[in-house]
Design a protein that fits this description.
Layout (H helix, E strand, L loop, with lengths): L1 H5 L11 H24 L16 H17 L4 H37 L6 H6 L9 H20 L1
C-alpha cells in the first residue's frame, strides 16, 4: 500500500527518492506519537507533533529508515550505508546522552531559582523550560523499529 502511494507516476521501475521516504517516516512517526499520547491521556494531544522527544524517537526513525534504505538499495558494504550508519550513531548518541545532560542542567537551574529568595517572576519562566528533551532507550528502540519497518514497507510494498 505505502509503496503504491510512493511510486512515480511515469514509471514503476524508477525508485522513489530516499529523502522522501525518510521524510515520510519522520512525519508518520510524529503522527504515531500524537496517536499514542492521545490514547494514553484520553484526549487529543496535538502538541506532540512538534515534540522532539518521546516515543517513538524521530531521530532514531529517520536514521533507521535512512540506513535501511541505503542498505537495501546499495548494499551493506556501500559508502552510502556506511555514511547512514555513522549518521544514525551520532544522532542517537545526541538524542540520548547530550540531551540528557542538558535536561539535568535545566533541573539544576530550576532548583537554584526555586531556592533563591528573590527569584520572583523568574520562577514561573524557568518552570516553562522543564519540558522533556531527552530520549529513553525505549524511545530510541521504538524509533529504530519504526524507521526500519517503514522503509521496508516502502521498498518492498
Amino acid at each position: 500500500m505505502a509503496a503504491a502511494l510512493l511510486t512515480d507516476a511515469g514509471s514503476k521501475e524508477k525508485p522513489v527518492a530516499i529523502w522522501l521516504i525518510v521524510l515520510l517516516a519522520a512525519v508518520a512517526g510524529q503522527l504515531l506519537k500524537v496517536l499514542l499520547y492521545s490514547v494514553a491521556q484520553r484526549r487529543l494531544v496535538l502538541a506532540a507533533l512538534g515534540q522532539s522527544a518521546g516515543l517513538p524517537s524521530v531521530h532514531a526513525s529517520v536514521g533507521g529508515s535512512l540506513l535501511t534504505l541505503c542498505a537495501v538499495r546499495f548494499g551493506w558494504q556501500s559508502p552510502e550505508a556506511a555514511f547512514a550508519l555513522v549518521f544514525l550513531v551520532i544522532t542517537v548518541f545526541d538524542a540520548m546522552r547530550v540531551r540528557a545532560a542538558a535536561q539535568k542542567q535545566r533541573y539544576l537551574v530550576y532548583d537554584l531559582v526555586r531556592l533563591a529568595p528573590a527569584a520572583g517572576s523568574r520562577r514561573r519562566r524557568v518552570v516553562n523550560y522543564l519540558d522533556i528533551i531527552a530520549h529513553t532507550p525505549v524511545h530510541v528502540a521504538a524509533g529504530l523499529v519504526w524507521g526500519f519497518l517503514f522503509a521496508l514497507a516502502c521498498e518492498t510494498g
